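DM from R.C. (forwarded with permission)

"hey, sorry to bug you on a friday — could you get me a structure for this? deadline for the figure draft is monday and I only need the backbone to look sensible"
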Amino acid sequence: MIQPVNIMSLLLILSVLFAVGSSGIIPIIKVVALQGIIVTVLPLLLHQDLTTGSLIFGAVLMLIRGFIIPILLYYSITHVIHKNELDPVCGYNASIFAGLLIVIASIYISSKFSFPIIQQTPLILPAAISVLLGGIFFLIARRKAVTMVVGYLMLENGIYLIGASLSKRAHQVVEFGILLDVLIGVMIMGIVLFNIQRAFDDTDTALLRKLKD
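My reply, with the result:
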């Protein structure tokens, strides 16, 4: 299982580089859907003592992460005029460079830890940290409400992958509760996004500064 884990970890790293350099919101949502599927499958490949309950739990997580949340995000932007991040805080060339720095920093940070799982699959921790830092970058460097939600989802994916990879006993109940909170947050964000679009004819969160009591 080591080789598939390394391949999926490499896909996660490449997905972060693609996401930070992309201007289209729909491609970014597709990337997050792919990440959701991968971060759900990876812990199942790492831990061989699988049970029926863990497989069912993994299938539910994959359904929520890889399909339900991305579909909700997609339908949230169906009435949005601007489906691209037209004026990000950080330009796209600089974003790609920042993505490379994120990968380098993730490799450096992961080298400071010595876990048996890292020795067997050296790419999984850098991939998890890359996804986590990529989510933080989206929250800082993007202005559209949807891309900020995407950043939050990437952040959650990275945290889950770190915890589930390093722990043989993933805290499934806690994780499922967090994921339900994320799902509800995405649904609420869809309503907020619609109201921002109706009020300002755009989804730029910087426009919220114009609101007055």
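R.C.: lifesaver. The chain has eight helices and no strands.
me: no worries. The two ends are 57 Å apart (CA to CA).
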